Amino acid sequence: MSSVLVIDDSDSVRRTVRTMLESAGHDVVVASDGVDGITQFQEQSFDLVISDVVMPRKDGLQTVRELRQMTDEVPIIVMSGGLQLSNSGGGRRDIDDLLCVAKDIGATRTISKPFSQGDLLAVVGECLGR
Q: Where residue 83 falls among pLDDT bands split at 50, 70, 90?
């Protein structure tokens, strides 16, 4: 099957996504944030990257930008929950807005948490051309 890099700062999300993907036959490597994810990506080849948006050290948008500077060929799925974040102006920014930005800067697809295994595998299959 395919080699997938999963980048998320939540241990439980990394474990869950890894289990979902491995049960479908994918090889999975995990990273705890964008910095670790970029390092993993530079050290080995992947068929697909799945990244959270909101993470410490390097968020998902920065990660997508950096990955797209390295390659246009590897599909990237950006995922996040339906939260709202405070922005520097004191207002709120919906995560859905960030998912739209992620698509604008190079994400192949987005998926909102929580998602089912079926939903995730359908998006993964689309990105891998299956």
A: low
